[in-house]
Amino acid sequence: MPRGEAEYEQHSDLVSRISSLELTFRRMPRGGAEYEQHSDLVSRISSLELAQMRDYCSAVAGDLSLALNDLFFKSNIEGTITDNDRVLANSDDNDLPPIVLVHGIFGFGKGRLGGLSYFAGAEKKDERVLVPDLGSLTSIYDRARELFYYLKGGQVDYGEEHSKACGHSQFGRIYEQGHYPIWDEDHPIHCVGHSAGAQVIRVLQQMLADKAFRGYENTSENWILSVTSLSGAFNGTTRAYLDGMQPEDGKSMKTICLLQLCRIGVIIYDWMDIPFLKYYYNFGFDHYNMTWRKAGVWGLVDCLLGNSGPFASHDWILPDLTIQGSLRLNSHLNTFPSTYYFSYATKRTRKFMGRIVPSNVFGIHPLLFVRVLQMCQWRHPPDVPAPFKGYRDEEWWDNDGALNTISMTHPRFPVEHPSRFVVQDSECQPLQPGIWYYKVVEGDHILFIVNRERAGVQFDLIYDSIFERCRKHAARELFYYLKGGQVDYGEEHSKACGHSQFGRIYEQGHYPIWDEDHPIHCVGHSAGAQVIRVLQQMLADKAFRGYENTSENWILSVTSLSGAFNGTTRAYLDGMQPEDGKSMKTICLLQLCRIGVIIYDWMDIPFLKYYYNFGFDHYNMTWRKAGVWGLVDCLLGNSGPFASHDWILPDLTIQGSLRLNSHLNTFPSTYYFSYATKRTRKFMGRIVPSNVFGIHPLLFVRVLQMCQWRHPPDVPAPFKGYRDEEWWDNDGALNTISMTHPRFPVEHPSRFVVQDSECQPLQPGIWYYKVVEGDHILFIVNRERAGVQFDLIYDSIFERCRKHAFRKIPTMPDHVQ
C-alpha cells in the first residue's frame, strides 16, 4: 500500500474508535477548503455507492441498506458490537469447541459498519463464538479458503490453479494470529451459516476432507463437529435470474439488469480504494488488485467493459447462487457420517385459492415483499433448457424473498442427501450424525439477522436452540439421588456456567435398581414438575455418562401440582427482565435475594447449611474457596450462578420455559396428570382475587399484582399470539394457564377433566388436567390449610400410581388366579 503500513494502521485505529464519519474527516491530515471539498466529495460518493447497493443488490443474506438503516436511524443495543473479535489462541485441550457464525452475501463480520452485528447480537449468547469477516461478494470457494486461514492463521492461499483460471493473486490477506490456531480433529468447531454462509461451510468441510490446504496434510472432515444452516442457499435460487443472471448457463449476466448496476458500483468502489471506506465495508476483492494504484484508469475501463475482474471470470457469489451453480458445487460436496447437520428453512408464502401468495403482509420487511411476490410468479423461460431433469416451477414458488424454501431444507440436487423433517427440535433427540434435520420457520430471509426486534421471541428461541445443541446441559441431582454415585453436571454445561463438574456423592442410591423394568412414579410441585420433564428427556437422550441403557420408560407416570410448565409473569414482577427473561433489573426484590444467597453461601456456617441449603455448593462460593475477592466478584455479578443465569428464575420466565419446552417431549408410554391452582375470579368484567380469607396473607398481594400484569408495550411479546388477559388467572405464584399442561411453543396433547373418574381408563401420552380452587401452597407445608382437600388430592394421586398407571398387566396373587 503506497501510503505505508504505519499510516494504514493509524487510519484503521482511528476509524475503529469513532462512531461518525464527520469526526473521521475532522481528524484527517487535511485542512481548510481542501478538507471541506474532500469531505463533501467522499460523503457524496459514499451515499451514492451505498444507495446503489441498497436499491439493486440481492437480499439473499439481508441487504446492506437494512444494516445502514439500523446503524444510523435505530438504537440497536443488542446488535452493536464494539470489541474486537476474540482470538482463542491460548485454548487448552479441555476448552469447549468454538461456535463460528458465517455470514451470507453482503454480510460482514465484527468491526464492519461501525460495529453493527450481522447476527443481531446472537454471538453474545455464548462465551466462545467467532464471527469472521469474509468477502461479502466473493465466490463461495474464495470465502471457504478465507475462513480456513481466519481460524488457523497465515496468509490466505486461494490455490494456484484457481487463481490463474480466475485472474487474481494466489495469496491474499495475512492473519498473523489465527482466531483458533489449535483447530484440528481433536479440537473441532461448530459452524452456523446464514444464507450463502451455509454453503461456504459445506465447501470448507469438503476441502478439509480433500486435504486441499497446502502445508496442512492432516485435515479431515471431522474438524467440523456440527453444521447449522439458517436459510441456507443449498440448491440455488430463482431470485438470481430475476435480478439478472442468465437462466441459460447460470454464470453470465443479462446486458441490462439490476446486477449490472451492482457490478458497476462495486468496481468503482474498489477502484477508488478509500481506506476508511474499505475499513468500514469491504466487498472482498482485494486479491483482484482493482485499485487505482494497481490497475490505473485503463484497468478500471477494462473491468467496466467486462474484460477482467471477478465479474468477467464469474468468480463472485451470484453464479454460485443460481440453480446451475449450486448443482456444480453440490456434485462435489458430501454429507459426512460423523458430522451433525441441522437446517432452518424460512417461508413467507401460503396457498390462497390455489395460488402461492405472500403470507402475513405486515410481517414481511417492505424491501422483501415485492421480491416474495416476484418469486411466487417465477416461470423458467420455456425456450431455455430446465436447470435439471425433473425441474418444476411450482416446487420453487414457496420462498422468503431471497431464496426458495425447497432450496433451504437440505442438499437436494443433483442427488438428495439423507434428511428428516421435524416440527420440534426435540423430535431429533438424540441427534444422529450424517442426517440433515430440517424445519420450516415462518419468516422472511432476514429473520435471523441484523434486527433482533423484528423476530421477537423467535430470534431467541432459534439461537438458544442452536447453542444448546452445541452446549447441551441441565440439572442432574435427581438421577444420582436415585441411582447413586457422584452428581455429574456434564463437562460442557459446567464449563459454560463456571462451576465444578462434579457435586454431591450419594454412596447409596435411594433406588439403585431403577431401570425400564423397575420404573418410578414422579410427583412434582411447582418447578419440580418441570424438573421431572427435563429428567425424562435426559433419560430418553441417554445423557448420563456411563448409563447407555436409559430411556423415557424409566418414568411410568408424572403428576404435577401447580406445575411451572410455561413460566410465570410473577418472575417479571419480582425483577426478571421481560426483554430476555434471563437477566435481573438493577433494583428489585430478586437482587436482595441474590445478595442474601451469596453471603449465606460464602459464610458457610455448617449447622445453617445443614438446616437449609440453596444448592450452590458446586459453585465453590465459600470463604474458604473463594476468599474475600471471590465474594466481591459474586456480589458485583461477575461470577457465580446469578452471573451465568444458571439458577431457577431464568427457567421460570416465559422465555425460559419456551427454551426448555422446545426440547421436551410428552412420551407415548408415560401417564401424565396435572392439578392447576387458581385464586381468582371474574367480577364486573375484571379478574380479581377470590375468597380473600382463603388466600395466604403473603400471597394475597401477589395474586392482585398478577391480575393486573401488563407486558411492557415497548418490549417484544414473549411469543407470537401472547395476550395479557390469558395470564391474569393465577394462584399468587404461577399463572393458571401455565400450570395445566405444556402449551408453548407447541401445545401437547391434553384433556380437561372435572372429576378424576373422567380419565378412567387412563391413556398414556395425554396430559389430563383439572383446575383446583386454591393458592400456590395449597398442597405443601401446612396440611390444615387445605383441610380435607389435601387428603382427597394426594389419595387420588397415590391411587392412580398403584391401580391405574402401568405398562404391564399386574401379576395377581395365586389365590385370586
Give the assembly state of these chains. single chain
What is the CATH architecture assignment of the domain at 515-568 and 655-804? 3-Layer(aba) Sandwich
Query: Considering DSSP H and I runs of 4 or more, what fraction of the residues is helical?
Result: 25-40%
Output the number of helix runs. Answer: 30
Strand order of the largest sheet: 2-1-5-6-7-11-10
Mean pLDDT: 84
CA(first)-CA(last) distance: 96 Å
CATH class of the domain at 515-568 and 655-804, named: Alpha Beta
Structural class by secondary-structure content: alpha/beta
CATH superfamily of the domain at 515-568 and 655-804: Alpha/Beta hydrolase fold, catalytic domain
Beta fraction of the residues? Answer: 5-15%
CATH topology of the domain at 515-568 and 655-804: Rossmann fold
The radius of gyration over CA amounts to: 30 Å
Overall geometry = globular
Please give the largest β-sheet.
7 strands, parallel
The stretches of 5 or more residues where confidence is low (pLDDT under 50) are 1-84, 809-817
Please provide a written account of the structure.
There is one protein chain. The chain is α/β, with parallel strands linked by helices and 817 residues long. Among the domains are: 515-568 and 655-804, Rossmann fold, CATH 3.40.50; 584-644, no CATH class. Helix content is 36%, strand content 12%. A hairpin with a 2-residue loop joins strand 17 and strand 18. It is globular, with a radius of gyration of 30 Å. Residues 98-210, 474-541 form the Lipase-like C-terminal domain.
Secondary structure: elements and pairs:
Blueprint: H1 5-17, H2 21-27, H3 32-56, H4 64-73, E1 99-102, E2 129-130, H5 140-152, E3 154-157, H6 160-166, E4 171-175, E5 189-194, H7 196-209, E6 224-230, H8 239-243, H9 258-272, H10 275-280, H11 292-304, H12 317-321, H13 323-330, E7 340-347, E8 349-352, E9 355-358, H14 366-376, H15 405-408, E10 419-421, E11 436-442, H16 452-455, H17 457-470, H18 477-483, E12 485-488, H19 491-497, E13 502-506, E14 520-525, H20 527-541, E15 555-561, H21 570-574, H22 589-603, H23 606-611, H24 623-635, H25 648-652, H26 654-661, E16 671-678, E17 680-683, E18 686-689, H27 697-707, H28 736-739, E19 750-752, E20 767-773, H29 783-786, H30 788-804
Parallel strand pairs: 1-2, 1-5, 5-6, 6-7, 7-11, 10-11, 14-15, 15-16, 16-20, 19-20
Antiparallel strand pairs: 3-4, 8-9, 12-13, 17-18
Helix pairs in contact: 3-9, 5-7, 9-11, 22-24
